[in-house]
């Protein structure tokens, strides 16, 4: 009986040690969450990244909904003043990190509303595009860095009021390491905003079969197996990252009108807002 208990304790200890080693590895290897194939694929889109009528028009049309998602979330957590909502000062004095910013489509939109925005991306080509475009607009509220979130967190722990990673998580293999480092960049009480496809038959049909077959999305952009379900994402954030989930909302895209809208169903895509524990 005693031997059985000792063996059980030993097994639990080994599991705990393995988890600690795994966590250490996923946090310390800088390039762990960066996939070279994904970076190259998105870098190849640099020439038409800012063409709102081109292959990335779905990303451009998504912007109004993404911006309102972030503003409403910050308003609900009382991080921004209600009187500023709907003005060019909506995000005034809010320090925001856009992780996986690409060519800066969302980053610029947030900066235009007064946010102090930093965009990071592992693609050198896309950061160059983002920088060049912000110079044209003379937007001084943006800083861009060609680095991963693992690199960024080393000198930016608990630095941001809000972090947004939109249409990025589905391209990351090591989601635990990625999310842990994102949350480490947040101030206590800060907000994390995520939009990503669900891993369902509906999303496979909508995103992979219809989206990429009929060129609504550039071919080869997604690997369905990398998609994450809302309950899986929520578990990582709440159990491993010490965050509280505030909301999970379904997203719907109509490829024929190129319009995004909110929906009660998360079967295809969803937006999650979480807050880091204080």
From TrEMBL:
<feature type="binding site">
    <location>
        <position position="121"/>
    </location>
    <ligand>
        <name>S-adenosyl-L-methionine</name>
    </ligand>
</feature>
<keyword id="KW-0496">Mitochondrion</keyword>
<dbReference type="GO" id="GO:0120537">
    <property type="term" value="F:3-demethylubiquinone 3-O-methyltransferase activity"/>
</dbReference>
<comment type="similarity">
    <text>Belongs to the class I-like SAM-binding methyltransferase superfamily. UbiG/COQ3 family.</text>
</comment>
<feature type="binding site">
    <location>
        <position position="171"/>
    </location>
    <ligand>
        <name>Mg(2+)</name>
    </ligand>
</feature>
<keyword id="KW-0999">Mitochondrion inner membrane</keyword>
<comment type="pathway">
    <text>Cofactor biosynthesis; ubiquinone biosynthesis.</text>
</comment>
<dbReference type="GO" id="GO:0046872">
    <property type="term" value="F:metal ion binding"/>
</dbReference>
<keyword id="KW-0808">Transferase</keyword>
<dbReference type="GO" id="GO:0031314">
    <property type="term" value="C:extrinsic component of mitochondrial inner membrane"/>
</dbReference>
<protein>
    <recommendedName>
        <fullName>Ubiquinone biosynthesis O-methyltransferase, mitochondrial</fullName>
        <ecNumber>2.1.1.64</ecNumber>
        <ecNumber>2.1.1.-</ecNumber>
        <ecNumber>2.1.1.114</ecNumber>
    </recommendedName>
</protein>
<feature type="binding site">
    <location>
        <position position="167"/>
    </location>
    <ligand>
        <name>Mg(2+)</name>
    </ligand>
</feature>
<keyword id="KW-0460">Magnesium</keyword>
<keyword id="KW-0949">S-adenosyl-L-methionine</keyword>
<keyword id="KW-0479">Metal-binding</keyword>
<comment type="subunit">
    <text>Component of a multi-subunit COQ enzyme complex.</text>
</comment>
<dbReference type="InterPro" id="IPR010233">
    <property type="entry name" value="UbiG_MeTrfase"/>
</dbReference>
<keyword id="KW-0831">Ubiquinone biosynthesis</keyword>
<comment type="function">
    <text>O-methyltransferase required for two non-consecutive steps during ubiquinone biosynthesis. Catalyzes the 2 O-methylation of 3,4-dihydroxy-5-(all-trans-polyprenyl)benzoic acid into 4-hydroxy-3-methoxy-5-(all-trans-polyprenyl)benzoic acid. Also catalyzes the last step of ubiquinone biosynthesis by mediating methylation of 3-demethylubiquinone into ubiquinone. Also able to mediate the methylation of 3-demethylubiquinol into ubiquinol.</text>
</comment>
<dbReference type="InterPro" id="IPR029063">
    <property type="entry name" value="SAM-dependent_MTases_sf"/>
</dbReference>
<feature type="binding site">
    <location>
        <position position="170"/>
    </location>
    <ligand>
        <name>Mg(2+)</name>
    </ligand>
</feature>
<feature type="binding site">
    <location>
        <position position="166"/>
    </location>
    <ligand>
        <name>S-adenosyl-L-methionine</name>
    </ligand>
</feature>
<feature type="binding site">
    <location>
        <position position="100"/>
    </location>
    <ligand>
        <name>S-adenosyl-L-methionine</name>
    </ligand>
</feature>
<dbReference type="GO" id="GO:0010420">
    <property type="term" value="F:polyprenyldihydroxybenzoate methyltransferase activity"/>
</dbReference>
<keyword id="KW-0489">Methyltransferase</keyword>
<feature type="binding site">
    <location>
        <position position="66"/>
    </location>
    <ligand>
        <name>S-adenosyl-L-methionine</name>
    </ligand>
</feature>
<dbReference type="GO" id="GO:0061542">
    <property type="term" value="F:3-demethylubiquinol 3-O-methyltransferase activity"/>
</dbReference>
<dbReference type="Pfam" id="PF13489">
    <property type="entry name" value="Methyltransf_23"/>
</dbReference>
<keyword id="KW-0472">Membrane</keyword>
<dbReference type="GO" id="GO:0032259">
    <property type="term" value="P:methylation"/>
</dbReference>
């Amino acid at each position: 009986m005693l031997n059985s208990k000792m063996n059980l304790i030993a097994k639990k200890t080994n599991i705990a040690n393995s988890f600690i080693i795994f966590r250490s590895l996923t946090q310390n290897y800088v390039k762990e969450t960066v996939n070279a194939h994904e970076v190259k694929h998105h870098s190849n889109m640099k020439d038409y990244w800012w063409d709102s009528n081109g292959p990335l028009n779905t990303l451009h049309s998504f912007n109004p909904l993404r911006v309102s998602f972030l503003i409403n979330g910050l308003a609900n957590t009382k991080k921004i003043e209600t009187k500023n909502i709907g003005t060019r000062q909506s995000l005034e004095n809010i320090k925001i990190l856009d992780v996986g910013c690409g060519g800066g489509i969302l980053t610029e939109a947030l900066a235009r509303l007064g946010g102090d925005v930093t965009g990071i991306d592992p693609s050198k080509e896309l950061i160059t595009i983002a920088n060049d475009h912000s110079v044209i607009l003379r937007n001084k509220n943006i800083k861009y860095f060609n680095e991963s979130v693992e690199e960024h967190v080393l000198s930016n722990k608990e630095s941001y009021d809000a972090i947004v990673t939109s249409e990025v998580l589905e391209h990351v293999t090591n989601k635990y390491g990625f999310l842990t480092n994102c949350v480490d960049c947040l101030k206590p009480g800060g907000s994390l905003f995520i939009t990503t496809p669900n891993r369902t038959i509906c999303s496979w049909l909508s995103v992979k079969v219809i989206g990429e077959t009929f060129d609504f999305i550039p071919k080869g952009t997604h690997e369905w197996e990398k998609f994450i379900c809302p309950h899986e994402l929520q578990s990582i954030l709440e159990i491993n990252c010490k965050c509280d989930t505030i909301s999970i909302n379904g997203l719907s895209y109509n490829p024929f009108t190129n319009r995004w809208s909110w929906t009660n169903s998360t079967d295809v895509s969803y937006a999650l807002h979480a807050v880091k524990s204080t």
